[in-house]
Amino acid sequence: MITQKTRNQGEDRYKWDLSVMYPSDASWEEDYRTVEKGLPRLLEFKGFLANAGKLGQFMQVYIDYSVIRENLYVYAHARFYENTRNSLYEEMKGRIELLDAKISAETVFIKNELSSLSRDNINAMIQENSQLAEYRFFLDSYARYHPHILSEETETVLAELEIVLKKPDDIFSAYNNNNILFEEFEHKGEKIHLSHAKYAQILETPDRPLRQKAFEHYYRPYRQHSDVLANTYAANVLANSKLAKVRNYASMLEMALFPDYLPTTVISNLVEVATENIDVISDFNALKKEGLGIEELHFYDNYVPLGKEVNKKYSYEEALELVRNSLEPLGAAYLGKYDVTVRARVIDAFESPGKRSGAFSWGSYASRGLIFLNYTEKFSDVSTFAHEFGHCLQRDYSIENQPYLYYQNPIFLAEVASTFNEALLFDHMLKIAKTTEEKKFFLYHNMKRIEATFFRQTMFANFEKDIHEAAESGKVLTAKSITGIYRRNLEVYLGRGMVIDDELNYEWARIPHFYHAFYVYKYATSLSASIALSERVISGEKGAVEDYLTFLGAGSHKEPREILKDAGVDLTGKGAYEVTVHKFRKLLKEYKLL
User: Fold this and answer.
1) CA dihedral defined by 489, 422, 382, 208, rounded to 10 degrees?
2) What digits encode the pLDDT tens for the residues 322-372?
3) Domain harbouring 126, CATH code
4) Which residues contact 199 (CB under 8 A, 6 or more apart)?
5) Domains of the chain: total
6) For 499, phi and psi rounded to 5 degrees?
7) What's the CA gap between 112 and 268, in Å, rounded?
8) In a domain, 501, yes or no
9) Residue 319 belongs to a domain
């Protein structure tokens, strides 16, 4: 088991080297001043964006300015996430957030003027200035926002308020990462000090009394502070709902899906398929009870791997090798990028005091993809690394193949690349399994992946939908009402055979993604797409690898659904989600036959 070291005690090879972004904090300060002083240059174009010549000039200035602005923002936040107790980087993060908010407030004319252009206007301007042709999709994407753009005065006020509207997320993050206090408890003569990562680790131990104690102590501070956390979350939900109304959307859900060109039926179809097939979760619960030899299945039993490989640990170096081998079906070009990425020190591997919890991949157009982990040697950490590496290389492929305006992968597409890598990893682990028990172990983990990514994330999305609908109907959001709504979702999605302890009712209070409304459903939709794409590659279907690598470099140069269709997946209707459920049933059947 890895003992937690301070960041300075850790070896450099396990920490990302952010000199890929800035060689020093001083160079960051130089770019900060450049962006600060460069704002007036952008403002010179105010009132002239309907002029074809001026628009062409503006686009180049805007792109150059945005590239630096993005790099500043990502670097400051990445530094802060290394150690959220570091006041220097907390200040840098705050400064760039304030400057970013100021820029947004003073450049609302961009959104207003571009959204006022009709498709005919855009066509005429491109005929007059052919340079603008490369920006057509960018310009069209603004034009579609016309019904939702307000007066310049109102847009300015909203832009100035943006940093305030984001504060609930900051408040929750400060509590969850720095100020939460888990009570120490004793187990078998050992004093247990919980952290987020330690709790996740304990949930996989075969020691059931330890799991139960950890579960009860982990949720205790969330329950004790549920009133404060409910008010924090309610502030976020109310801000979302009021903003959607002000911007002339029918709901927050519609506003959240609008940037990805998606109808709200995407959520309703997802929810319907998941809830209509909860019987497979009930069957899975029965399998867990039998495998664990228990009469009652509680949530703290839900993450214990079945089989003899429960206690197997994977060193970080073993994880690197396993993931690389699993990605071999993608060919030499992808593997070459894998090797370069590992050597480039863009991965921050291990947990340390003050480090932000969880895992993610980020980066900027001026640099490359970054990977942030809290690796603890579990197989789930190997899977997490494969997941985040998928994000990382999708960013790098997009940087190589798209201009700045189109390099960003919408989350709707980005989660396809990450879960695709997980699919290849599980396929590889099944192939190299040496015993029946090992095969059962990885079949089980594959089922857990679908349970967690498809069914559980859909439950989260359903909860968000219920909460926002409650707020939009005028209902008061309190700790009691939020907890009640969450409980009803637990009862639907956890299936028969799962005992829902009172502690779990407060799970809503610890989920960071809820502060980014309607983000989580994309994990479920993306998993469905990635299962379809990975099956093509694994089976050796002609053109599958080429289609997938083209998808990785597609960025956002057209509507997300169209990019997926080009890769061979259509998320219209319920079909793709039903494929995921079928995959789950197939894995469950195979497990039972062993």
Assistant:
1) 30
2) 999 999 999 999 999 999 999 999 999 999 999 998 899 999 999 999 999
3) 1.20.140.70
4) 182, 214, 218
5) 1
6) -80, 125
7) 32
8) no
9) no
First vs last C-alpha separation in the chain: 31
* 21 in any annotated domain: yes
Average pLDDT, the chain: 93
pLDDT, tens only, 450-507 = 999 999 999 999 999 999 999 999 999 999 999 999 999 999 999 999 999 999 999 9
Helix-helix angle 575-593:521-538, to 10 degrees: 70
What is the chain's alpha carbon radius of gyration, rounded to the nearest angstrom? Answer: 24
Q: Is residue 130 part of a domain?
A: yes
* Beta carbons within 10 angstroms of residue 168's beta carbon: 22
Query: Per the residue annotation, which of 377, 388, 464, 507 is the catalytic one?
Result: 388
Report which of 465, 37, 76 is spatially closest to residue 253, judged by C-alpha positions.
Answer: 465
Q: Which residues pair with 348 in a beta bridge?
A: 372
Q: Is 113 a catalytic residue?
A: no
DSSP-derived secondary structure for 284-302: HHHHHHHHHT-SSEEGGGT
The per-residue pLDDT for 576 is: 85
Q: Which residues of 505-523 are buried (b: 16+ CB within 10 A; e: fewer)?
A: bbbbbbbeebbebbbbbbb
Question: Residues for the chain: how many in total?
Answer: 594
Q: What is the DSSP string of 76-121?
A: HHHHHHH-TT-HHHHHHHHHHHHHHHHHHHHTHHHHHHHHT--HHH
Whole domain around residue 58: which residue ranges? 7-165
Q: H or E element: which one contains 360? A: strand 360-363
d(CA 1, CA 314): 10
